[in-house]
Design goal:
Strand order of the largest sheet: 1-2-3-5-7
Protein name: Restriction endonuclease
Order of helices and strands: HHHHEEEEHEEHEHHH
Number of helices: 9
GO molecular function: DNA binding; restriction endodeoxyribonuclease activity
Largest sheet: 5 strands, mixed
InterPro entries: Restrct_endonuc-II-like (IPR011335), Restrct_endonuc_IV_Mrr (IPR007560), tRNA_endonuc-like_dom_sf (IPR011856), Type_IV_Methyl-Rstrct_Enzyme (IPR052906)
Structural class: alpha/beta
CATH architecture of one domain: 3-Layer(aba) Sandwich
Radius of gyration: 29 Å
Distance between the termini: 74 Å
Pfam family, one: Mrr_cat
Keywords: Endonuclease, Hydrolase, Membrane, Nuclease, Transmembrane, Transmembrane helix
Number of strands: 7
Oligomer: single chain
Helix content: 40-55%
Shape: elongated
């Protein structure tokens, strides 16, 4: 009988050991392989001890390569953040986008405003095209609706978002963004369910005029609170304490 712990042994085309002799041969092969690997490790360690300067050189090269790679990543992220900070989109540009481009634009706008956002829009996305977290560790689900001119988003979209935002995505805030408008029923439903709506006018303030995400939705901005904690006396003259904020 095949041992229980070895039920998932890979089969490399040689078949699975069945008899005692086959298992014995398998155990010997594993033992010899392990012994050879151990001897190889000892040989490498001995070589490095005898040629310590090579080990030091390799370590310095590895450290230097790692530092250079990390600095390049940090610089690339800084450049990306600066570009995002200057991100402005006009309504004609947004109207000319495809739905997936609109979702990516919303993600970038949230990144611009200091949130950490990722694009999740795809078939079966459970009413979440973008999921973001702000400085207060709040999870925000965004449903994006790119429409043709004059189209309005109805209440059924809000029911779908409300049904998945907290239950499936563990979100504290739900937002629906559209380049169109919302029906009267949708606005009433949003007030009842506590869902934030960003229609065409608010989208222009956000994307074109650079109004921040939290300010747009009249939400407390945790990053502002963090800055206040960092310098609690910012409203006082800085030289009163002999330091600069």
């Amino acid at each position: 009988m095949r041992p229980r712990l070895l039920k998932r042994l890979p089969d490399f085309g040689l078949g699975t050991p069945q008899t005692v002799g086959q298992w014995t041969a398998f155990a010997i092969a594993v033992g010899v392989t392990g012994w050879l690997a151990f001897r190889l490790i000892l040989a490498v360690i001995g070589f490095l001890l005898d040629h310590w300067y090579l080990a030091l050189l390799l370590s310095l090269v590895l450290i230097g390569t790692t530092v250079a790679w990390w600095r390049q990543r940090v610089r690339a992220e800084q450049i990306r953040r600066r570009r995002l900070g200057q991100l402005r989109l006009t309504l004609p540009q947004i109207d000319g986008m495809r739905p997936v481009e609109f979702e990516l634009a919303v993600r970038d706008l949230m990144d611009r405003d200091g949130l950490t956002a990722r694009h999740t829009g795809r078939r079966g996305d459970k009413a979440a095209d973008v999921i973001a977290r702000d400085a207060g560790a709040r999870t925000i689900v965004v449903q994006c609706k790119h429409t043709t001119m004059g189209r309005r988003v109805g209440a059924p979209v809000l029911y779908a978002v409300n049904g998945t935002a907290a239950a499936l995505h563990r979100a504290q805030l739900a937002v629906i963004v559209t380049n169109g408008g919302f029906t009267r029923d949708a606005r009433q439903t949003a007030r009842e369910l506590g869902i934030h709506l960003v229609g065409r006018d608010d989208l222009e303030r956000w994307a074109t005029h650079g109004v921040g995400f939290h300010r747009l939705l009249r939400l407390r901005d945790p990053s502002a609170d963090r800055d206040a904690v960092r310098w609690p006396f910012s409203a006082w003259p800085a030289d009163r304490f002999g330091v600069k904020p």
